[in-house]
Amino acid sequence: MRHVRIHPRTLGYLGRALSLELSAVQQYMTQASLAEAWGLTEAATRFREETVEEMKHAERIIQRMLILGVAPNASQLRPAGVARNLVDLLRQDAVLEAEIIALYQEAVTFCLRIGDQANGEFFQGLLQDETVHAQELEQWLIALGVPRVQDRNERAYF
């Protein structure tokens, strides 16, 4: 591990990102098992694929932390989201993905503001992946016939 000067707030973003990505791994893994128990084989397969994608994100974050000379530390995993049906599982996933996206947007903005181009680009890559994932979740909900709702602040949610 080489030691690089890094802003403490950037380290905080990395730690929170690792916690959220590992929370997503746990959530998708749990949901795959639930979907399988319900006989929803295709949904179980998709959730397992999402588990792998989130594990890859967690691995990227761990590698980044090691490059920066920091020991990886996921401070708090969230409980896995369980529900009684597929739509409610997907709604929980949409909330988690929105939180992850918001973190990455904030991290990109901060890194670019302080002139930390390398970490800004790192977070930007994760942000792009998660944005695509959120769009895929949205399309899955739409395919299931779930209408989008706008709140007073013009945010769409399911």
Q: What integer is the average pLDDT?
A: 91
Count the beta strands.
2
Radius of gyration: 17 Å
State the helix count. Answer: 4
Distance between the termini: 44 Å
- The CATH architecture name reads Up-down Bundle
- CATH superfamily caption: Ferritin, core subunit, four-helix bundle
Order of helices and strands: HHHHEE
Dominant shape: elongated
Q: What's the CATH topology label?
A: Ferritin
Q: Helix proportion of residues, in percent? A: over 70%
Q: Quick one: CATH class?
A: Mainly Alpha
Q: Structural class from helices and strands?
A: mainly alpha
Uncertain parts: none
Please, what is the oligomeric state?
A: single chain
Largest sheet: 2 strands, antiparallel
Structure in words:
The relative contact order is 0.16. The chain has helices at 8-37, 41-67, 86-113, 117-143; strands spanning 149-150, 156-157. The radius of gyration is 17 Å and the shape is elongated. With 158 residues, the protein is mainly α. A two-stranded antiparallel ribbon has the order 1-2. Helix 1 runs antiparallel to helix 3 (86-113) and helix 3 (86-113) packs antiparallel against helix 4. It has 4 helices and 2 strands. It has one domain: Up-down Bundle (Ferritin), CATH 1.20.1260. Helices cover 71% and strands 3% of the residues. Its EC number is 1.16.3.1. Keywords: Heme, Iron, Iron storage, Metal-binding.
Give a concise summary.
The protein has 158 residues and is an all-alpha fold. The protein has helices at residues 8-37, 41-67, 86-113, 117-143; strands at residues 149-150, 156-157. The longest helix is centred in the N-terminal third of the chain and has 30 residues, at 8-37.
